[in-house]
Specification:
Length: 197
Amino acid sequence: MMSFDFKKDPFENFLESLKQAQIKGVPDHNAMALATVNEKNEPSVRIVFYKGLIRRGFSFYTNYLGHKGKDLEQNKNVSVNFFWSHLDQQIRVDGVVEKLTNDESDAYFASRARLSQIGAWASNQSEKIESFAAFEEKIVAIEKKYAGQTVPRPPHWGGYIIVPREIEFWFGRSGRLHERYVYEKNNQDWNRFLRSP
Ligand SMILES: Cc1cc2nc3c(=O)[nH]c(=O)nc-3n(C[C@H](O)[C@H](O)[C@H](O)COP(=O)(O)O)c2cc1C
């Protein structure tokens, strides 16, 4: 069982937990389920990669015009969940998103594999497509366009940070007597309390 120090800052606890998950070999330990809602209040969940803490927010990158991008344009409320079965642990973060700056998104985009950069131009994320073959043709055309050049970041692709309102650390225990440690934002500080399993 991992020891958990509730007196510590939640971001510090998060980073330590994440490191443990990596050390223990949890596959895709930095993957999180991200829930958004559309204008009809219909929720939608998908997995995205957490890409580090920026200004005390949990960052991820995506297409701003896809399903989640459209949801976030009109409703900034999100909830994410990391689940690490090897550790019997989950971490839930509820909050609102803010877009990263162009410079921040540029810096991350530049670090991506070239094919991912090409894909960001080729994919109108979440839109209907004629066939996968047609999409592959688009990839080839964009590869040609940028041959021998740096691929610039598409303006519709970039990052968000999730600014947390609440962070819950959940530890599975035998008999379903799970431990739940909650940090709730209170101005610049955190209220700390436990929740019943
Ligand atoms: C392990 C894993 C990591 C993923 N990471 C990302 C990511 O960081 N950004 C992203 O846009 N999509 C990522 N995806 C794809 C998304 O789950 C999703 O299919 C895509 O973003 C389109 O979602 P949307 O149509 O709801 O906007 C990932 C999928 C998996 C399985």
